[in-house]
Write a structure and sequence with these properties.
- This is dihydropteroate synthase.
- By secondary structure, this protein is an alpha/beta fold.
- The protein has two domains: about 80 residues, no CATH class; about 260 residues, Dihydropteroate synthase-like (TIM Barrel, Alpha-Beta Barrel).
- It is about 40% helix and about 15% strand.
- The strands form two sheets. An eight-stranded parallel beta barrel has the order 4-5-6-7-8-9-10-11, surrounded by five helices.
- The longest helix is centred in the last third of the chain and has 18 residues.
């Protein structure tokens, strides 16, 4: 007998090849994935009940020592269990008091999560002050760059006319449209929208309307649908919408950013903005935690490490850390020399749940992602 440890992303496929019956594949798959769920401000009564319920099925709840004697009214806790455990608890806690019914509903969102195909979103800027000079293009040069991106493997092209880097100042929508109009007209005339999906990085209704009338399908809003008019417009065109989180605005977002808990604070933001989007009839949503938009290095790293948390919303997750300053904070480097760091962040983001990667370097990302997918898909049997 010989033994080696196996790591398989698709355990169901592995079990089928092993020869397990269909019922066994379903049961064993749910037992194979371990989840660790941080619960903040859990009522002491709920903590004691949940602890016993978890232990009774083979899961566990890590709690502070004061829970047993109820030294405080609320505690933070860590629920540890498999998909099968969460499935059982999501039913069992429905009959329990102290807010456990709400927890039961929440647990359901962490099981049977959607999986999405990885997509590359290439960046093209029509302004002359974007932080990466090589992303700036005008007129026919922009079209040539887009065609190259399509050839290199881009699934989406994100066009922008105003810089949102830290310290940047917004311009009137008329000026933004003036920068973008020649490119938008060429995209429409050459029917490039039939080859790739186009996204507009804007929060100005009039600018977005012009793009949506020229084949664009995605509204990439760094304000996270703050403007009701953008919501109405997106709904009327049935556009897909990127809801991005940003603390404050580009002029001051990097001035002492603070969060009580960056994961939970952004989760609450998404919950509110998703509800708002749905209220306007928007269903096709992408979430973007906004790396570098009102975050310290530690905030960015925590979001990347815990990105999988946001999958519970059931939407695609977008990450855009291409050549950003957080790379320089870890390894001092110029913008031109940050491709390796960019690839490291984006590949890790895919492993942690991202399905849309916004980047400047499409060809290099395509190669890296295809290799990552090849490694993840290989089967032992």
């Amino acid at each position: 007998m010989r033994v080696f440890k196996v790591k398989n992303k698709n355990i169901s496929s592995f079990l089928e090849k092993l020869g397990c019956d269909k019922g066994g594949v379903n049961i064993l798959s749910k037992k194979s994935e371990l989840h660790t769920l941080y619960i903040k401000d859990l009522h002491v009564g709920a903590a004691n009940i949940l602890k016993q319920d978890a232990l009774s099925i083979g899961a566990d709840l890590a709690v502070p020592t004061g829970v047993v004697i109820a030294s405080e009214k609320y505690f933070d806790a860590l629920l540890i269990g498999t998909t099968k455990h969460f499935e059982i608890l999501s039913k069992k806690e429905l009959a329990q008091p102290f807010g456990l019914k709400n927890l039961a509903h929440y647990l359901k969102t962490f099981i049977n999560q959607k999986e999405f195909k990885t997509k590359i979103m290439g960046i093209v800027n029509a302004n002359d002050d974007s932080f990466f000079e090589k992303s700036r293009f005008q007129g026919s040069n922009a079209i040539s760059k887009m065609e190259l991106m399509i050839e290199d493997g881009a699934d989406i092209i994100d066009l922008g006319g105003v810089s949102s880097r830290p310290g940047s100042i917004a311009v009137p929508w008329e000026e933004e449209l003036e920068r973008l109009k020649p490119i938008l007209d060429l995209i429409f005339a050459q029917k490039l929208y039939e080859k790739v999906d186009f996204s507009l990085d804007s929060y100005e209704p009039e600018v977005l309307k012009y793009a949506l009338n020229r084949g664009f399908k995605i509204v990439n809003d760094i304000t996270g649908l703050e403007n009701d008019e953008v919501c109405k417009l997106s709904a009327s065109y049935k556009a897909q919408v990127v809801i991005m989180h940003m603390q404050k605005d580009p002029t001051n977002m990097q001035k002492d950013p603070f969060y009580e808990n960056v994961i939970l604070d952004i989760d609450e933001f998404f919950e509110n903005r998703v509800e708002k989007a749905k209220g306007f009839g928007i269903e096709n949503i992408i979430l973007d935690v906004g790396i570098g938009f009102g975050k310290t290095l530690e905030h960015n790293l925590l979001l990347l490490k815990n990105l999988e948390h946001f999958k519970h919303f059931g939407y695609e997750l977008l990450i855009g850390a291409s050549r950003k300053s957080m790379i320089n904070m870890v390894v001092p480097s110029s913008i031109e020399d940050r491709l390796p760091g960019t690839l490291a962040i984006h590949l890790e983001s895919i492993k942690n749940g991202a399905s849309i990667i916004r980047c400047h370097d499409v060809k290099e990302h395509y190669q890296a992602i295809k290799l990552q997918e090849a490694i993840q898909s290989v089967e032992i049997l």
